[in-house]
Each structure stands twice: as C-alpha cells, then as structure tokens.
Specification:
InterPro entries: 6-hairpin_glycosidase_sf, 6hp_glycosidase-like_sf, Glyco_hydro_9, Glyco_hydro_9_His_AS. By secondary structure, the protein is mainly alpha-helical. The protein has 20 helices and five strands.
Length: 528
C-alpha cells in the first residue's frame, strides 16, 4: 500500500506543479503587457524611420508655442509677425560701446537676464538637435532657428572679451515700478557684467552651454557662425571654471530674481555640451573622472530647471552610454553609467505607477513642485522623459527597471504626453495653459505689452492696465502661463503673477516636448 500511495502522491504533485507553472507563466505574460510588470523580458520596440504622419494637435500647438519667442524679442525686429510688437531697447549696450539690443525679455517685464535667456537657448538648441527632423516635417524648424539665433546673437555681443560677460540689461527696480510697453520705455537701462573680480560661473557656464549646443545646430547651414559660437563657448567655459563664484554673490540684488543655488551643475552641463560639440576628451574627463563623484550628485535625482542643470546633464550624458563610443576609456564609461543610472532614477520618479513615483502631483496628474511658475517642472520633466524614451527606442533598449518593476519606452512616452495634454486642456479646468491654443485659454496674462493697447500713451505709469478686469487687448501668442495651484485650480487675473506670468525658458522645453510628440522618428546617434 505504501508503494501505491507514494506513486499516487507523486502523480498529483507533478500535475499540481505543472498547473502552478502554467499559471505563473500566464501571470508573467500579463504583467509583461502592462506597465510596471515584474517580468523583465519585454521585446525591444522597432526603431522608427523618418518622421511619419503629423499629429495635428501637437503640430498646431508647436506652431503656437514658437510665436512666443517673437513676442519676447528685443531690438530692431525683422519680419515681425506680431502686429502689436515693434522695435524696442535699440540703445541697449551703448554706454559700453556695444550693441546689446537683441535678446529676449525673460517674462512679463523688460529686463534682459542672461542666465535664463541662455538656458532658453540651450534647451531650444537641444530640442532642434534631437527633433529637428520632426520640426521640419511640421514646418516649424525655421521659427525655432530664428528664435535661437536671436538669443545667440545677443550672447556673442554680450561677451566682448575672454573674461567679461554682460549678464543683465536694465534695472529691475526701475522696470518693476513701471507698467508700459517696451516700445515706449524711456528709463535708464544700466549694464551688469561679470569679470575676474566679480565672477559668475553659473551664468558664464550656462552661456557656454548655449553657444556650444547652438554651434552644432548651425554647423551645417553656417559654418562660420558655428565656429564663432564654439570659440565663445570654450572661452566662457574657461572663464567660468577659472574664476569661480556665483553671480548672485557678486551682485546680491540678483538674489531677488534669479538666485542660482550653485554653479558646479552649470560647469558640468557646459562641459557636457562642449564634449558633444568638439569631441575633445578633456571635457568628457572633466564631467566623469575629474568631477563626477564630487559634483554630479549621482544617485540623487532632482528637478530640471533654469537653476538645476543636473537632471539635464544626466540625460544628455546617458546618450553617450546608450550609443557608445570606442574612444571612451573604462573610467569615463563608469562615470557615464553613473549619469545614466541617475537619469533612470529621474525617469522612475516620473512614471505614475512606478514604486519610485513622486507624490508631487496634482489630482489631475500634473507634476507639481511649487506654486510659482508651476508648469516649469512638468514641462521640463516631460521633455527629459521623452528624450530618454527616444534614446531607448533608437538603441532597441526594451525597458527600465524601477525597484523591481519594468517599464517600456512607451510607458515613459505616455507620461510625457500626459503632461503635454494637461497643458493643452486635458485638465480639471478644461483650460489650455498655452495662450492662443484651443478655444479656452487665459485672457489676462501678466504681460506688459499684451495688456496695453498698441496706441496707448501711458508713460511709465500705465498701471490702470495691470489692474483692469478686461481681457488683454493683445494676445501673447504662445505664452505658457505659470500654471495651476496644486488643487488644479487657476485664477485668470493679471494681478495674479504667480499663475498668469509666462517665461521664455518654459517655452524652450515646451517646444522640445511638442516637437518630440508631433510625429515618431528615431534620434540621431550623434549631434555632429
């Protein structure tokens, strides 16, 4: 009997074991199909070819978003497409014998701050380098190049000698005591410069990053201009690295406006762009072997912004790890892997159902970090996520792992699209936060030029237009306003600058985000 019982028991055990294995296999198959599955044998997605069909929603939004750079232009306008804008600040720089008339006003006032302006140029150039084919397919590449060059022309003029960079045009106190159109302003516009004795490594390095990135954008169309940009970028990086210091310590008044919390992130960011632009191993060694462990904050994801460039550097350098290079040493590769690992930690924090997902979101699903200019972090995060997902697709990388769960490039792309869709009106307010897009968008943008009729003679004190309950007489096309509160609400009032003021640096990453979503295409293995 014992032998018979044993044989029967073994038979049932085998049947039970097979059933468990079948059930387990089925469970893993299901999990593989869902975002966050613990099965980690996802198949790589096919690499897209040239740009495909245009998604009209994102294409239309891209065309609107790019117009804000025209709204913000300073100087003698060329081919002006904004009927209520005209020439302004034509004598900027005259007291130093320079022409600093170009560039862009940063937000709803008329100061030109080099720091956020340069960041705008860097991310706009990055957007063109990654998604220029998509922009071209959507017939929006030329406006992007025009906006970029308007800023880089200013940066060239603002760097008259190796160790001098003009970082501000205008007096914020005087400017903020006025509410007037830029075309009619008459206040003094003093210049602020950084130099050996009054350093500003944060601003100088950001300008270097912008010019290095832009040099690659213009390399095929204007070699001479590209070379000029690269020369300025290299000299500015040397200046920033040699004479170290924060611009807001050299000029404490800057702390009220763009108070950078450090400069080493800009040094790493600039060196990364210079490596891409030159192929010079010195720059790669700088960001990996020499300074990576000390300054890169590996393993500590943060939020990409005009102040903190680390997440951008991590994604940008992960590109080298994805696509590889025979000239990179083992020690440099180790550093690049640390950048990529940290970039993945950033991405894992963004995917909504990831075990590492940040809780810093609105009920409507928007990334939300701070009340002032709340859309900044959502837009920047979505841009980085989209770029990273395209690196994965283009190298047939199937998945990222987030604390044991696995996510495909599609999952990451879906997050990026969710942030873009929220901005364009898929939100509890049913409001497009991109002015000029859709049927419902903010009417009282906190913006001097947009709020005052073009023929009004206000002098400096046109504050009646700031406090007017009426919609702006001029539409600030393409302005991405500050955005909602954490409860997804928005108060459309010109006096509510926290929510209704727009900025050029938000528009830089928004253009990249929309360009990446407008159609599918693989990204280039190299920028040059």
């Amino acid at each position: 009997m014992g032998s018979k019982y044993t044989r029967g028991c073994c038979g049932w055990l085998i049947v039970a074991l097979i059933a468990v294995l079948v059930a387990t296999a089925a469970m893993f198959a299901i999990m593989k199909r869902k975002p966050g599955g613990r099965g980690h044998h996802m198949k790589p997605l096919p690499v897209p070819g040239p740009p495909g069909a245009i998604d009209s929603k994102y294409g239309d939004a891209l065309g609107v978003a790019l117009q804000f750079f025209q709204v913000q232009k300073s100087g003698k306008l060329e081919n002006n497409q904004i009927p209520w804008r005209g020439d302004s600040a034509l004598t900027d720089g005259k007291e130093a014998g320079l022409d600093l008339s170009k560039g862009m006003y940063d937000a709803g006032d008329h100061i030109k701050f080099t720091f956020p302006m340069a960041f705008t140029a860097t991310v706009l150039a990055w957007s063109v380098l990654e998604y220029g084919d998509q922009m071209s397919a959507a017939k929006q590449l030329d406006p992007a190049l025009d906006a970029l060059k308007w800023i880089t022309d200013f940066l060239i003029a603002a760097h008259p000698s190796d160790n001098v960079l003009y970082i501000q045009v205008g007096d914020p106190d005087l400017d903020h005591n006025c509410w007037e159109r830029p075309e009619t302003m008459t206040e003094k516009r003093p210049l602020t410069q950084i130099n050996k004795k009054s350093p500003g490594s944060d601003v100088a390095a950001e300008a270097a990053a912008a010019m290095a990135a832009a040099s690659m954008v213009f390399k095929s169309s204007d070699t001479t201009y590209s070379d000029v940009l690269l020369q300025h970028a290299q000299k500015l990086f040397t200046f920033a690295d040699t004479y170290r210091g924060l611009s807001s310590e050299s000029y404490p008044k800057l702390q009220d406006f763009y108070n950078s919390t450090g400069y080493v992130d800009e040094l790493l960011w600039a060196a990364s762009w210079l490596y891409h632009a030159t192929g010079d191993q010195t720059y790669l060694s700088y960001v990996t072997v020499q300074n990576g462990k000390t300054y890169a904050e590996w393993g500590r994801p943060t939020w990409f912004s005009w102040d903190d460039k680390n997440p951008g550097t991590q994604v940008l350098l992960s590109r080298l790890n994805f696509f590889g290079s025979k000239q990179i040493s083992n020690a440099e590769n180790e550093g690049l892997k640390s950048y990529r690992d940290t970039a993945e930690a950033v991405i894992c924090g963004l995917i909504p159902d990831s075990p590492q997902a940040t809780a810093s979101r609105t009920g409507g699903g928007l990334i939300w970090i701070s009340g002032w200019n709340s859309l900044q972090h959502a837009t920047n995060s979505a841009f980085l996520a989209l770029v990273y997902s395209d690196y994965m697709i283009s190298t047939r990388t199937a998945e990222v792992q987030c604390s044991g769960k696995y996510y495909s490039p599609t999952d990451i792309r879906n997050f990026a699209a969710s942030q873009a869709n929220y901005i364009l009106g898929d939100n509890p307010m049913k409001l497009s936060y991109l002015v000029g897009y859709g049927s419902s968008y903010p009417q009282q943008v906190h913006h001097r030029g947009a709020s005052i009729p073009a023929n009004a003679k206000t002098g400096c004190k046109g504050f009646e237009y700031l406090h007017s309950p009426n919609p702006n007489p001029n539409v600030a096309m393409g302005a991405l306003v500050g955005g909602p509160f954490q409860n997804d609400t928005f108060v459309d009032s010109r006096d509510n600058a926290v929510q209704t003021e727009s900025s050029t640096y938000n528009s830089g990453t928004l253009v990249g985000l929309l360009s990446g979503l407008v159609t599918t295409s693989s990204v280039a293995q190299s920028f040059t």
